[in-house]
Amino acid sequence: MSTDNTEPQGIDRLRSTLRLLYHGSSTVALRFQFAVLLVDLAIIAFFIATPLLRDRPSYIWIDVAVAVLLIADLVARGLASTDPLRWLRQPTTIVDIFILVTLLLPAWLANFGFLRILRLWTLSQGGALWRPLKKLKLTQYREQGEAIVNIVTFLFLVSGFVLTFFGSPDSGIEGYVDALYYTVTSVTTTGYGDITLPGTAGRLTSIAVMIIGITLFVRLAQSLFRPHKVYFPCPQCGLQRHEPDAVHCKACGHVLNIPDDNH
After folding, report:
1. Torsion angle defined by CA atoms of residues 31, 33, 35 and 37, in that order, rounded to the nearest 10 degrees
2. What's the angle, vertex CA 88, arms to CA 82 and CA 90, rounded to 5?
3. Which residues pair with 255 in a beta bridge?
4. Of the residues 162, 201, 241, 247, which has the maximum number of CB atoms within 10 A of its CB?
5. Do residues 38 and 73 touch, judged by C-beta distance below 8 A?
6. Ranges of H-type helices in 24-141
7. For 49, left (φ over 0), alpha (ψ -120 to 50), or beta?
8. pLDDT at 1
9. What DSSP element (H or E) covers 231?
10. C-alpha 175: how far from its chain's center?
């Protein structure tokens, strides 16, 4: 009887500890979260550099090490979740699991390796990137940070896609830098014309890259230049964006009590 009771208690204790580390605000939790963030950023840097490192002997060992780290992180986050099944159904979790599969099966899923950069997007959506801003009382810059993350993720994602499916001497894309150069010139609509994607599929890809890229750039410009507003849902009408010093909701006049992170 004691053995049966000890095991569930041990698991509950582990889950409670992980929940405090991943979601808590204590000094120990913040240090842990910052360490996890640094590891995640190092992993993302590896994903970005993957096309340049793939032919090196050490690549496979780094790949395996990153896979082990992601397994440990996913298991820990699953245990820390109050509802593991709901956590598994979240888009960010599904993307992370797919990224892990590409690491575990590099020979079979090599053509989908460019999707690993989506780890940057899942990191942004999970909020891990923005905890340091909260600690430094700079949460007003989160919207700009999210816009930058989206455009950077898109650039590297498209570059990897172009290199994987259109890379050839005929198209002028012989390496990762060529693919990144094509992506940036397409997104900015500069279009020098020295590198073009062949065929109908190439033209359709270029159209999609330009449309989505311009949209992301417009959102980035809006977040950088429009007046800063805070996110605080009005209890009366639900309006979410207000002036930082607003006392009443401008839509319905309801009295607001917006927390001030700077005091």
Report:
1. -150
2. 100
3. 248
4. 162
5. no
6. 27-53, 59-80, 84-89, 91-104, 118-126, 131-135
7. alpha
8. 47
9. strand 230-231
10. 25
Q: Give the residue among 226, 225, 229, 221 at the shortest CA–CA distance from 258.
A: 229
Say if residues 241 and 229 touch (Cβ distance below 8 Å): yes
Task: Specify which residues 231 forms β-bridges with.
Answer: 241
Tokens of 248: 């009443």
Q: Which of 36, 39, 40 is nearest to 18 (CA)?
A: 36
pLDDT in tens, 55-70: 788 888 888 899 999 9
Structure tokens at 223: 């977040």
Q: Taking CA 164 as the corner, what is the angle to CA 103 and CA 186, rounded to the nearest 5 degrees? A: 125
